[in-house]
Input
Amino acid sequence: MNTTVSETNAKPPSIWWVPVVMGLIALGVGIFFVVRNDSTLKTVTVILGIFLLIQAVVEILTAIFGKGEGRGVLALVGVITAIAGLLLVKKPFETLTVLILILGIVFIVAGIARFVDAATSAEGRGGNLLVCLIDLAAGIIILAWPDLTLTAVAVIIGIVLIVRGILMMAFGFQIRSAEKNLEKAL
Output
């Protein structure tokens, strides 16, 4: 058998940049929502829908190619997030109530899924628990506050996305650091 690269020397592709890019996107969208909290409902709905679609793709790919017992839950969250994103992009709602309902449900389901993932996998447990708590708090606040204004929704979403973005970027740089340390050790 004539091969150019042996199986033991093959280096898997580096993926550290995926959470960094997602973190930058989340951070950018979060800052937009906090700074431009006077945007129209349609603008907030479409931008959030696009972000949810991007996040859904990443979650589904993570579930497909990742390791751990929480992959099925991540895939489910990816599908739910994709449906919510499609709804927000294809039918930008004219009422804040529909947006609040969709967001509250997505945040709570994502929070529960992150909790299950953190409970079943030691990798990234602290970050997953922190994101879980943030998602659950945001979902509960959004659903429990009946007189929520668009400005309040935008600021809540913005804060959640800023924190998520920072955590995602930190995770990506941790992966990169671990890869470099592994290369040095080999």
Q: What stands out?
A: The helical segments are 17-35, 41-65, 71-90, 96-120, 125-144, 150-185. The chain has six helices and no strands. The longest helix spans residues 150-185. The CA atoms of residues 89 and 157 lie 17 Å apart.
